[in-house]
Write a structure and sequence with these properties.
By secondary structure, this protein is an all-alpha fold. About 65% of the residues lie in helices and about 0% in strands. It has a two-stranded parallel ribbon with strand order 1-2.
């Protein structure tokens, strides 16, 4: 037996989202419910009751009374929902978007092309969301801090921003070099973001991605055979040149399938001579 005092079953059948009782009273109790209604819309695809919408618009400016951590979590869930485009459009119609992102431009065409018909990892989606709107490194850092994103995620997003041109150039570079970039945690993350945020351009180097993937075994690159200590013992002075040489040697290890340290060091000696 289901006891329903508020008509919830009827609303579920009609696919309607509404507050229990007076919307203004519910939003006065907790302003975050404004975003929660949008989040439910994003997840379920239901319609929000007209009175509830009017109260959401009336109370939207009170969202600044809610901790940014709670706002961030609700907005993140909204962005992950299957019906996020519908929720984003309503957030703009009710002027909630402009309250949350006062310096940003609402861009429905970009949202439809980038955020539709696909499931994303939360961190990848946050990176896309920031990079769609922000075109300056400092702005990404400032907005990331304002939204209380983790410092690691902010660094990852800034890395994506810094590497976008570099990633684009991989279409014309050797697959082993691309594999080395993808073999790092941040490199792999940046490639995921790039492939989603630049879908038409990404098709140009789709074959390069497949070539690079062949160097991976069970999702990982082979460990470098030569390390920094080996080069220092060889006679190199500690510094940037060691890092550059390690990259060159590791490239040869992957490209030529060499697994013996002595052979790689021999190649190094031949190059220097």
């Amino acid at each position: 037996e289901v006891i329903d005092y508020v008509g919830g079953q009827k609303d579920l059948m009609k696919k309607v989202i509404r507050t229990v009782g007076q919307p203004v009273a519910r939003f006065e109790e907790d302003k975050l419910r404004i975003l929660r209604a949008l989040r439910f819309l994003s997840q379920l695809g239901f319609e929000i009751d007209r009175d509830t919408q009017e109260a959401m618009q009336l109370w939207k400016h009170k969202l600044d009374q809610v901790s940014m951590e709670r706002v961030r979590d609700e907005w993140g869930k909204l962005l992950l929902g299957e019906h996020r485009l519908k929720a984003l459009e309503l957030s703009d119609k009710l002027k909630i978007f402009s309250v949350l992102f006062p310096q940003w431009t609402f861009m429905p065409l970009q949202y439809r092309s980038l955020l539709s018909d696909k499931a994303y990892e939360p961190s990848v989606l946050w990176a896309m969301w920031m990079l769609i709107h922000l075109k300056e490194r400092q702005s990404i850092a400032e907005e990331g801090l304002r939204w209380k994103l983790s410092r690691d995620l902010i660094k990852d997003i800034i890395f994506c921003y810094d590497q976008m041109t570099h990633i684009r150039e991989f279409a014309n570079r050797d697959a082993a070099d691309f594999a080395i970039f993808m073999g790092t945690t941040r490199g792999k993350f940046a490639v995921k973001v790039y492939r989603n945020i630049n879908r038409p351009q990404a098709e140009r180097w789709k074959s390069k991605f497949k070539e690079a993937s062949q160097y991976f075994v069970d999702g990982k690159l082979p460990k470098p055979v030569v390390n920094g200590d080996d080069l220092i013992q060889y006679g190199m002075q500690p510094g940037p040149m060691v890092s550059e040489m390690l990259h060159r040697i590791y490239y040869k290890q992957l490209k030529e399938g060499i697994s013996h340290k002595e052979e790689l060091m021999k190649i190094l000696a031949e190059e220097e001579n």
